[in-house]
Amino acid sequence: MEMRPEDILVPTPAGVCCKRGGFHIDPTRPAERALITHAHSDHARAGHGAVLATQETLDLMRLRYGANFAGATQAIAYGESVTLDGVTVTFHPAGHVLGSAQIAVAAEGLRVVASGDYKNASDPTCAPFELVPCDVFITEATFALPVFRHGDADGEIAKLLHSVALFPERAHLIGAYSLGKAQRVIALLRQAGYHAPIYLHGAMEAITYYYASRGIALGELRPVRGAGKAELAGTITLCPPSALKDVWTRRFPDPLTAFASGWMRVRARARQYGVELPLVISDHADWDGLTATIAATGAGEIWVTHGQEDALVHWCATQGLKARPLDIVGYGDEDEGGSGDDGGDA
Ligand SMILES: [Zn+2]
Ligand SMILES: [Zn+2]
Fold first, then answer.
1. 20 C-alpha to center of ligand 2: Å?
2. Ligand located closest to 97 CA
3. Span from the CA of 220 to the centroid of ligand 2 (angstroms)
4. Ligand approaching nearest to the C-alpha of 39
5. Bridging pattern class, strands 172-175 and 256-260
6. What is the pLDDT of residue 267?
7. Residue 4 and residue 16: Cα distance in Å, rounded?
8. What's residue 331's pLDDT?
9. Strand arrangement of the beta sheet that strand 10-12 belongs to
10. Which residues pair with 93 in a beta bridge?
11. 251 CA distance to ligand 2 centroid (A)?
């Protein structure tokens, strides 16, 4: 009998499940065996029996949840395959954050790729997105509306550096999600030739130092904690977006607030955070990135999760592709503009 995609993976309320292989991918509830695409908290939760993920994802989960975040862990490298009860799983770079992976699940000649969150734009802090040909592609849809075109991150960094040059007495506070976005902004600043020390909100420290320990060039970093007000004039500080409206900002001289997010394309979102300098920098594929990637996988069937599912499902139909929304509740909670207070990996 011919295999159907559902014989390999089925969507369940707890996430996509491979019954045959006995595992879930990014389960939203405690699972016996979990394969984790990346360490953002909506995908990587504590309390699973066994976790299979990249070394970086395991390390980041350990940083966030403590040493006992899972019963057992196994690290897998990009390009490496593991066979679980006759099902072969292979991890490939997703280009989203450090350690992020797409998970290819294959059995009897049929291949389903669960991409997790991904982007096809360049990012000096993680391995570039790898296109994996497949029969079924499970895509995210965070920015799946034609209005979302992220443009060039370097141009946004130039805007920030221009502002720093223009206001040498003010402290620039950049709201950025603490896993991935903050480190990417720092790395892009370094690439653009900014070599002054960059300051970190306490919530940024552990993850940012972990990135540096993995050889990512972030230059000189300093904790804001303990820095005097005068010292912070003319400097750049990374903080969680929620801190932008906090009394915490009072320690800075005449703070100028920026926010690095794909949502900054939407003016109302920038206003909502009271942001003076919106920076359109996203760790998710934009509309063009999503549609180009879907087409390039060669998949005849697309499963859509995590965001603007309807628009992308509709687009797939116009291309003659079979498509369905997965309607799994629990993803995207960390994306800025979502319900998460921490303000998001978008
Ligand atoms: Zn993510
Ligand atoms: Zn996500």
1. 25
2. 1
3. 30
4. 1
5. parallel
6. 86
7. 15
8. 83
9. 10-12, 15-18, 23-25, 33-35, 48-53, 70-75
10. 101
11. 33
Three-state DSSP string of the chain: CCCCHHHHCEEECCEEEECCCCEEECCCCCCCEEECCCCCCCCCCCCEEEEEECHHHHHHHHHHHCCCCEEEEEECCCCCEEEECCEEEEEEECCCCCCCEEEEEEECCEEEEECCCCCCCCCCCCCCCCCCCCCEEEEEECCCCCCCCCCCHHHHHHHHHHHHHHCCCCCEEEECCCCCHHHHHHHHHHHCCCCCCEEECHHHHHHHHHHHHCCCCCCCEEECCCCCCHHHCCCEEEECHHHHHCHHHHHCCCCEEEEECHHHHCHHHHHHCCCCEEECCCCCCCHHHHHHHHHHHCCCEEEEEEECHHHHHHHHHHCCCEEEECCCCCCCCCCCCCCCCCCCCC
- Ligand 1 centroid to Cα of residue 98, in Å, is 10
For ligand 1, the distance from its centroid to the CA atom of residue 44, given in whole angstroms, is: 9
How far is the centre of ligand 1, averaged over its atoms, from the C-alpha of 345 (Å)? 6
- Give the Cα separation of 18 and 195 in Å (integer): 48
Q: 331 CA to middle of ligand 2, Å?
A: 6
Q: Which two tokens stand for residue 174?
A: 């950049």
| For the CA of 338, the nearest ligand | 2
Centroid of ligand 1 to alpha carbon of 344 (angstroms): 8
Ligand nearest to the CA of 328: 2
Ligand 1 centroid to 289 CA: how many Å?
16
Cα 46 to middle of ligand 1, angstroms: 16
Q: Flag residues of the chain having pLDDT under 70.
A: 1, 333-346
pLDDT, one tens digit per residue, over 310-335 is 999 999 999 999 999 998 888 875 54
The burial of 84, by beta-carbon neighbours within 10 Å (0-12 exposed, 13-18 middle, 19 or more buried), is given as: middle
Q: What is the pTM of this model?
A: 0.95
Q: What percent of the chain has pLDDT over 90?
A: 89
Ligand 2 centroid distance, CA of 119 (Å): 12
Q: How far apart are CA 224 and CA 237, in angstroms?
A: 8
The bound ligand whose nearest atom lies closest to the alpha carbon of 307 is: 2
